[in-house]
Structures are given as structure tokens and as C-alpha cells.
Amino acid sequence: SQTIHQWPATLVQPVGSPLSLECTVEGTSNPNLYWYRQAAGRGLQLLFYSVGIGQISSEVPQNLSASRPQDRQFILSSKKLLLSDSGFYLCARLDNRYTFGSGTRLTVV
Amino acid sequence: DQQVKQNSPSLSVQEGRISILNCDYTNSMFDYFLWYKKYPAEGPTFLISISSIKDKNEDGRFTVFLNKSAKHLSLHIVPSQPGDSAVYFCAADTGNQFYFGTGTSLTVIP
What we know:
Distance between the termini of chain B: 38 Å
Low-confidence stretches of chain B: none
Structural class of chain A: mainly beta
Radius of gyration of chain B: 13 Å
Order of helices and strands of chain B: EEEEEEEEEEE
Largest interface: A-B, 21 and 20 residues
Strand content of chain A: over 45%
Number of strands of chain A: 11
Shape of chain A: globular
Oligomer: heterodimer
Mean pLDDT of chain A: 89
Helix content of chain B: under 10%
Number of helices of chain A: 0
Helix content of chain A: under 10%
Distance between the termini of chain A: 37 Å
Strand content of chain B: over 45%
Structural class of chain B: mainly beta
């Protein structure tokens, strides 16, 4: 199984509050993991990817960060959320194609 | 720079008719193309793919066509069903990274 667990499903946070979204994956070890964001009316934007524990590459400069403390765990964080951080966040793993998690709908108010 | 483009943000089709979703790309190094389907509040799910060595791949009601000279990809759904209503993303792969289009929202009218 290449299941991806992502939580929470929905989240409403005030501006300036911290954020932590967690993603865990099952299946083969040492997967390539990704965080994508789908903002309203826009496509899928790659935020971070990781090829292994502690290895994080950032695609877009912003107030978000990512960490990979364990092989099958990928965390998206922010110290202070902005209104523009609202969107649908997707965790994904890449084997021969992407498999996506169910997503987290984040609304910053 | 958007390397994969879906110029139609939305499409409406009558049930039973053909749905054609289009995708254009700019990078000639792309060698693998995919279509994903996404329902609201869910992650995208893989639908169909095609390698750059082919020009057509068919899976049931879904057919993907690739025109390399035009750098154009299309997804045909025949016959369209109300359950096909979703956002469709095309994606292209260089072997190192995937690039997604901005999506086309398909509505199949019963």
C-alpha cells in the first residue's frame, strides 16, 4: 500500500498564529515526498520536496517551512500565518507517478 | 513561468457527449505526461498517462492524445457522465520534476 495520511482535513487559523500540518506515508521506504498548495482559482504549486530524512528543498520563498524528522513523516509549518497562506495543501509521494493525500483546507482569518 | 498550460479554466458538456480537455506545454524535454482528476476537498487521483514515444493511450472511456510537434496534449472522455464532473490537471515530467497545469473544471450536465 502506498497510502498517504494527511491531517487535519480542515483548519481555520487566525492571522499570525502558527501552523503544523502533518503527512505520513505507508509503503516503500525512503520515498520522495512533496508539499503542494492549490490556491483558489490556481493550479498546483510545488512548495517543498524531500528526498530523505532531514533533506528539504524549497521551491517558493515564503513564510512556510518543511521538515522531515522521520523517513515516512513530512511536516509543513509556519511561525506566523498570513491571509495569503489560505489554500488547499496536499502532501504527495512520487514513485513512478504522484500519489496524493486527501489534503488540508486551510483558511486564515 | 508556466511550462504546462491549460487555457480553458472550465468546460460544460451534456451527459453522453464527448468531453475534450486540452493542455499545452513548452518544454521539449518532457517525456511523460499524466492526467489527474480532483474532486472538491480531495487530493488529485491519477487518471491516465502517456509516454512521449506514443501518440495515443486509451483506458475505457478515457483517451489521451499527444502531439509532440505541437506540444499539445488532450484528454477525451466518451461518453461523459455526471460523475466525471471534477477539476482535471495535466502534468508533465522531465524525469526529475513534475509540472502541473492550472486545471480545467469539467461540468457534465445530466
